[in-house]
Every structure is written in structure tokens, then in C-alpha cells.
Amino acid sequence: MAVGIFDSGLGGLTVLEAARKRLPDVPFVYFGDSAHAPYGVRDADDIYDLTTRAVERLFDAGCDLVILACNTASAAALRRMQESWVPREKRVLGVFVPLIEALTERQWGDNSPPREVAVKHVALFATPATVASRAFQRELAFRAIGVDVEAQACGGVVDAIEEGDMILAEALVRSHVDALRRKMPSPQAAVLGCTHYPLLQDVFQEALGAQVNVYSQANIVAESLADYLERHPGMIGPGTAEAYLTTGDPARVSNRATQFLRREIRFTAA
């Protein structure tokens, strides 16, 4: 009855932790492609190939449903995967749609025409590949009209987090917020469009100011997953064991993950 969670590195652990708290009876299999992180500087074909390879491994681990807890993969690969690669009896879901539903105050599956929403000025912080894909803007346009989105590519932040250099990561966040504010001085909301970024949510909030509503994905995606499984209980796969898989060095990745989550995590080679 396992569900798979995939990320290019460690950022998806923020989603995993929220999902474990929301769904304590569901075993999760986590796959971090740390050997190839970060995805945010790769081209779309490369991201697609790496993502399908990782998701196939999660299918083999007994997961019929896989969450792409990687915004770059969700932006650059998910639609192509759903249209031509995912087997009929499997499901692969991304992290953009639950976030946009929360931003636009829509219920899951609300397919009514796009409408005016309260938030008019949105700052998007994401990897270069996610920004270049314009996937967030595309999904938002299906649900809302009249929303101005200013995207800021946050180069270097994921690398710094993966290396455990949080001082550098915090400095980069402040620099990217300053750059965003030069383009959009007064955003009403900010979207953290990378699952690594919740580790620095307080830094984003401080740099943006208390008046800006910062949307982070972990709890939103966990709640959306719980709703999905309630409506599709058959999508909980046959796997029964929780596992943490990595393409990187298991000892090094385990140490980083333990530091991030402040509980012992043991990765094994994928």
C-alpha cells in the first residue's frame, strides 16, 4: 500500500514529512536523484529522461501512485509523461495544481471557467527550468484571470541546500527577493515553487515582509494527496515497506537528510 514520492534531491522530504503526518498509515517510498541534482539547470529532454527512470524505479518498489515532489520535473516532464508514458493502471501527479488551487481558492476538480480572484500580484520563486517552462502561469490561467505573475529564477539556492551551506542559501534567497522586488515592488502573495524552499520559508517571509502571504507546498500537497486517496483508494500500491532510495552516496545523503529533518534517515542505493 505504498505511495512514491520523487525529487531530484532532498527538497521533496518536506512533502514527505507533511504526507507522513497527514497519512500515518500509508508507507511511503522516497526516491532522491541526488547524483543528478539539481534539475533546475537541465534541459527538458534530460529532465524527462531522468524523471521517467526514477518513477519506473518507484513503480518497481510497489508504488502505483507517484507524486513528483519536484517542481522542475512537474513543469518540464509531467504533462509529457501523462500523455504518452504512464501505464494505464498507474498515476503520476505533480505539485503545481494543489498549490494553484489553494492560491485561487478552488476545490479539487473544479473545472469551471477561469474567474477573478482576490490575489492580483503574485511573486513566483523557482528554479531556472521551472521559470523557463511557464508551467505555473499556464496552470494558473486555466483557473484565474487578471493575475500578474512575476517569476524570479533562484539560481544557486538548491545547490547550496544540497551542499548543506544554509548561510549561502539564506544570502541567495535575500538577493533573489531583492531582485524580484525591483520588478514587482508590492506582491500580495509569494509562491515557493520548489520543494527545497520550505526549508527557508522563514527567510523568504522575513525578506518579503509580513504583509505578503507566502504559499509553501508541503502541507498543501499532503492535504491534496489525502483527498485524492480518499476518492481513489485503489491507487495505494502493493508495497508495504517504507524506504528511502538515492542515486547519490547513501551515507552522505543520509547525513544531509538527518540534518534537514532532525530525525535519523537512512537512504539505500537505488
Automatic annotation (TrEMBL):
| Domain of life according to the entry | Bacteria
Q: What name is this protein filed under?
A: Aspartate/glutamate racemase family protein
In its UniProt entry, the species of origin is given as Lutimaribacter degradans
